[in-house]
């Protein structure tokens, strides 16, 4: 049998590609089953979507109806209403007849176009004709349907909004206002709002005047703990007949800092380097890292070129100094960062460009391999 690479990155992972997260699965499942609203935040690529899809699978087995909508690709209110109705239909029924009935019951004036995707577990894509003018009215009704369905079917409903911060691009605060007014009365529905842009998520959930202030429990999804990740990595290599020692795994996780995406990416390339030799050694780890840096060098060069000298110097400081106090006089002087105010400005821009992010009160690179690239290409 041909062995396939057991590490995957880029999209949400499931099945044997998914590791650990046992605690998070337990806590989030219990909370959602109990009707608790939750805000789940982490930087991009920490594994929110993978985790939540796994939890929803588990909740469905417990008899919940699960509605999942990703706001990332949605650019207009019309599209939002179509995607939300598609998500509600797909989450509550597997039969086209039932979906038509549901739409007739709640939206008698709409003539929808329904497309079925996937055979084993069908999903419905719903489009409204151009004649449907008042999207706000449709949305108002849509917001109430999860609770109506929950009451009628006597089931708990869980609604997940992935990349929720994008909601601000659709209609300012208006969607949040309308949604809040409805969902505060929804006794049988638990809402989970996920997001990866900290400043936007803060604006939506932590600002006192915002409609979603104190709407639920805030959970910060951490990286995967070292022990759990090490077990996962060992098993994936061993299951595909490759040997790897604890020292090598430790080295991998030191490079990737246990970041889920970058760990899978590095392991993927290490596997490609090692599968003929059947054993992972230092040489394969180094080759894989070199391969990734080479592969990404064009992208990194474009980013580097787009930065000002002060911003570049700040990144060099972050690369060179183990425990960086970016505002300290010594660092400002050593790396010619300007003034404390310039440092703050550079940080803000780099954070907005998603080059750096705050992690446990300090700033780190969003892309670990960009840091490695700076070390290899710029600092050498
Ligand atoms: N539990 C996990 N076990 C192993 N790898 C994971 C796990 N969760 C995420 N990953 C890795 O991280 C990548 C990004 O995951 P994703 O769920 O899309 O993150 P997010 O939704 O936070 O951006 C996946 O493609 C996968 O490589
Ligand atoms: Mg995601």
Brief rundown of the structure:
The chain has 16 helices and eleven strands. The protein is of the alpha/beta class and 380 residues long.
SSE topology sketch:
Elements: H1 22-33, E1 38-41, H2 48-61, E2 65-70, H3 77-92, H4 96-106, E3 112-117, E4 123-128, H5 135-153, E5 157-162, H6 168-171, H7 174-183, E6 189-195, H8 198-205, E7 217-220, H9 226-239, E8 243-244, H10 246-256, H11 260-274, E9 279-280, H12 282-305, H13 309-320, H14 329-334, H15 340-352, E10 356-359, E11 362-365, H16 368-378
Parallel strand pairs: 1-6, 1-7, 2-5, 5-6, 8-9
Antiparallel strand pairs: 3-4, 10-11
The protein binds adenosine-5'-diphosphate and magnesium ion.
The site of adenosine-5'-diphosphate has 22 residues, from helix 2 and helix 11.
List keywords for this structure.
380 residues, alpha/beta, Rossmann fold, 3 domains, two-stranded antiparallel sheet, 11 strands, globular, binds adenosine-5'-diphosphate
Describe this structure as you would to a colleague.
- The protein is an alpha/beta fold.
- It folds into three domains: 21-220, P-loop containing nucleotide triphosphate hydrolases (Rossmann fold), CATH 3.40.50.300; 224-306; 307-380, Arc Repressor Mutant, subunit A.
- It is built from 16 helices and eleven strands.
- Strands 2-5-6-1-7 form a five-stranded parallel beta sheet, with helices on both faces.
- Strand 10 (356-359) and strand 11 (362-365) form a beta hairpin.
- Helix 5 (135-153) runs parallel beside helix 7 (174-183) and helix 9 packs across helix 10 (246-256).
- The radius of gyration is 24 Å and the shape is globular.
- The chain starts with 21 loop residues before the first helix and ends with a helix.
- Residues 8-13, 18-21, 42, 44-50, 196, 260-261, 264 line the site of adenosine-5'-diphosphate.
- Adenosine-5'-diphosphate is lined by residues 8-13, 18-21, 42, 44-50, 196, 260-261, 264.
């Amino acid at each position: 049998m041909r062995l396939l690479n057991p590490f995957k990155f880029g999209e949400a992972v499931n099945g044997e590609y998914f590791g650990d997260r046992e605690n998070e699965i337990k806590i989030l499942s219990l909370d959602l089953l109990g009707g608790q609203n939750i805000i789940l935040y982490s930087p991009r690529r920490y594994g929110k979507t993978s985790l939540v899809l796994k939890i929803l699978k588990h909740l469905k087995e417990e008899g919940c109806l699960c509605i999942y909508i990703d706001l990332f690709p949605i650019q207009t209110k019309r599209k939002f209403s179509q995607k939300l109705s598609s998500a509600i239909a797909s989450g509550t029924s597997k039969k086209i007849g039932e979906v038509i009935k549901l739409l007739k019951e709640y939206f008698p004036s709409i003539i929808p176009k329904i497309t079925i995707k996937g055979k084993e577990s069908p999903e419905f894509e719903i489009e409204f004709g151009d004649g449907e003018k008042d999207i706000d009215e449709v949305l108002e009704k849509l917001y109430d349907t999860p609770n109506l369905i929950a009451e009628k079917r006597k089931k708990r409903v869980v609604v997940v909004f992935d990349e929720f911060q994008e909601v601000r691009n659709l209609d300012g605060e208006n969607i949040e206002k309308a949604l809040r007014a409805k969902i505060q009365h929804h006794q049988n529905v638990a809402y989970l709002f996920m997001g990866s842009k900290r400043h936007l998520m803060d604006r939506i959930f932590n600002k006192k005047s915002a409609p979603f202030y104190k709407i639920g429990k805030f959970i910060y999804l951490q990286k995967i703990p070292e022990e759990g990740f090490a077990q996962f990595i060992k098993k994936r290599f061993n299951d595909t007949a490759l040997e790897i020692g604890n020292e090598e795994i430790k080295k991998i996780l030191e490079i990737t800092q246990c970041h889920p995406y970058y760990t899978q990416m590095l392991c993927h390339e290490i596997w490609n380097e090692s599968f003929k030799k059947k054993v992972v050694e230092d040489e394969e780890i180094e080759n894989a890292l070199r391969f990734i840096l080479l592969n990404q060098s064009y992208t990194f060069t474009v980013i580097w070129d787009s930065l000002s000298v002060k911003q570049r110097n700040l990144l060099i400081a972050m690369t060179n100094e183990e425990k960086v106090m970016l505002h300290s006089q010594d660092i400002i002087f050593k790396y010619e960062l300007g003034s404390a105010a310039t440092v703050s400005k550079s940080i803000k821009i780099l954070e907005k460009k998603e080059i750096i992010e705050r992690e446990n009160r300090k700033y780190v690179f969003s892309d670990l391999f960009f840091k490695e690239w700076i070390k290899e290409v710029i600092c050498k």
